[in-house]
Amino acid sequence: MTASPTVRSELLRQRSRSARLFLLPMILALAIVAGWPLLRTIYFSFTDASLTNIDAAKWVGFKNYLSWIQLKSGRTIYSGLLVDPAWWNAVWNTVRFSVISVSVEAIFGMIIALVLNAEFKGRGIVRAAILIPWAIPTIVSARMWGWMLNDQFGILNDLFMRVGLIDHPIAWTASSDTAMIAVLIVDVWKTTPFMALLILAGLQMIPGDIYEAARIDGVHPVKQFFRITLPLVKPALMVAIIFRLLDAMRIFDLIYVLTPNSAQTKTMSVLARENLIDFDKFAYGSAQSTLLFLIIALMTMLAIWIGRVKLDGGER
Amino acid sequence: MPMSIIKNTAFYALVVVIVVCAVFPFYYAIITSFRTGSAIFTIEYWPTSFSVANYVNVIAAGSFARNLLNSIIVSACVVTLSLLMAVTAAFALSRVRFRGRSLLLLTILSVSMFPQIAVLAGLFEIIRLLGLYNTLGGLIFSYMIFTLPFTVWVLTTFMRDLPVEIEEAAIVDGATPWVIVTRVFLPLMWPALATTGLLAFIAAWNEFLFALTFTSSTETRTVPVTIALFTGSSAHEVPWGIVMAASVIVTVPLVVLVLIFQRKIISGLTAGGVKG
């Protein structure tokens, strides 16, 4: 640079001044649509607010979370979110759903990514085909699968009976034994492509000569996968799993449409919205939303710590 | 070499299974949408009848055309607003050093991980307060929570990878940062803007929770809500033909766009994930 130090520092000052100005609209927008509503939700969880009369909300402390009264007999009766079986059922459903769906998706995603990483005729068709489930809106896939899983006219019962997997039609979405399976099937179908593409991007960063060397040394392909591919793709795989896990924890729309009345699939988001809007327990629903937020926030912090997500904004 | 023939057959069998599993549900929705009356309740694996009655019904009856328009308006506005704010923000986040930049990026990333339900109560209050309840404005307002962090994040990773030389000439000429953004970066960014915009458009098009909660009349709904709430005279009489026709209408444009831009979309998706 030929410019004198004063000109240079003046330039830098101008640059950081503009940067602040450039960031302002975005920060303001996020503060209004994300920051403020989040604070209000947390505030409502400590009040007795109701949907029809939000303004009259009064502070009640931790009553929505946990409160107790001592009876004359000496027995203590607890009430509130932390002792609500419906809430813990929803927590358990959410965790079960997230862990199973993400594990299955990781396995299928890995298989599809390995296929797409091989050279073969028709690879473009496969890649295009797996983008279709990803492109279809969740509500539409819930409806499509709801039809395919229909107990009387569903094609899946017909197919499974033809090949002898089942001997009588199953009410997939209505029966309490299979509702969660139905939700898992649809979610795996819908989100495996995303997982596969993220893993594929990781696979493509592995240099080919490593495999070349392994082949010359006569390393069995299965051993190659566990000793070379898996360790090298692990960072990409972890990021994909963490992204999907955080996403699965907040699932709402698929379950709301596919299995609306099933206690076996009611997740935290579904339960919280029910209380907030349908049951007029606005404050109680806010407390559930707040707890879900805390859980996901903890998971995110853990994820950033584990995943070592690069946040320094690069070198420039 | 019989071993390699077996291997090849097994590989292609796997490929066929993947393709069939991925495509079949959409294929089945399409063939169902062309069947009417009692034909819909006989299970067929191949298209055996062709009737556009379901499509005529879905367009003519109710407010589906209106809802489709709503979805287009909301998604287009959300994408435009997000991109406008994201371009300058991404420039500042990727090309200028300032204190608190890492923290800001971290915050933006966390907001995109937000469970939407966590802000539902607070958003409900603010949307009613602003008089935006049951309007498209309320949806555009609330959708910024997921489109804005996403567009900022992807554009930041894109701008970070551009060489520093492209700015130098402009800086030497005394160009202000605003001129640098609009004259130097913007022309280079059209591909990235198109990809990011398309992904944000799809996200807004598919959104359900806010659309369900912040609208109350059939005229202000977006298509996902309409499709979710289609019911017959009783719970057991879902008009499946009409539901499938509506589903095909809202999905075909997306599938076509995704297939046209598939390379761009894949790189855009992975930019948010792997590099992030």
Automatic annotation (TrEMBL), chain A:
Keyword presence, Membrane: yes
Family matches, as InterPro entries: MetI-like, MetI-like_sf
Transmembrane helix in keyword set: yes
Pfam family membership, one: BPD_transp_1
Subcellular location: Cell membrane
Family: Belongs to the binding-protein-dependent transport system permease family.
Gene Ontology biological-process annotations: transmembrane transport
ABC transmembrane type-1 domain mapped to chain residues: 91-303
Sorted UniProt keywords: Cell membrane, Membrane, Transmembrane, Transmembrane helix, Transport
Listed Gene3D superfamilies: MetI-like
PANTHER family found in the cross-reference section: BLR7065 PROTEIN, INTEGRAL MEMBRANE SUGAR TRANSPORT PROTEIN
Residues that span the membrane, as ranges: 21-39, 97-116, 128-149, 225-246, 282-306
Protein name from the UniProt record: Maltose ABC transporter membrane protein /trehalose ABC transporter membrane protein
One Gene Ontology term, aspect cellular component: plasma membrane
Main location group: membrane
UniProt membrane topology term: Multi-pass membrane protein
TrEMBL record, chain B:
UniProt superkingdom: Bacteria
One annotated GO biological process: transmembrane transport
Membrane-related topology note: Multi-pass membrane protein
Transmembrane segment boundaries: 12-31, 72-91, 103-124, 136-155, 184-205, 240-261
Chief localisation class: membrane
ABC transmembrane type-1 domain boundaries: 68-261
Keyword tRNA-binding (UniProt): no
UniProt name for this protein: Maltose ABC transporter membrane protein /trehalose ABC transporter membrane protein
Origin species: Phyllobacterium bourgognense
